[in-house]
Specification:
It is built from five helices and no strands. It is an all-alpha fold. The chain has one domain: lambda repressor-like DNA-binding domains (434 Repressor (Amino-terminal Domain), Orthogonal Bundle). The protein starts with 11 loop residues before the first helix and ends in a 9-residue tail after the last helix. The relative contact order is 0.12.
Length: about 110
Amino acid sequence: MIDADNILGMSNAEIVQSLGEQFRDYRLNANLTQHEVAEKVGVSLITIRNFETGKAKNITLGNLLSLLRIVGRLESINELFPPIPLSPYMMSKLNAKKPKRVRHAK
């Protein structure tokens, strides 16, 4: 499993290997065989097998998205690029435009 403490020391191939191992757990949890996943994604059984066993050192983003979709984890892709929080400067500019009070006409 990839954690924040050791990911910086990992190569891209090691990260892909770890992702493949984690995907296997998700696939099994979804009660899918490698063959079923390969058919649904449109890749070969060998591609799935190599990804899960760490022999595939590269996988396309499109295939990874399809794999996540198949096991019901596509929403986790949002964790890759979370929204950037507003800077304090931008927050102050937005707050400056807010009305300080509300007056109703008599």
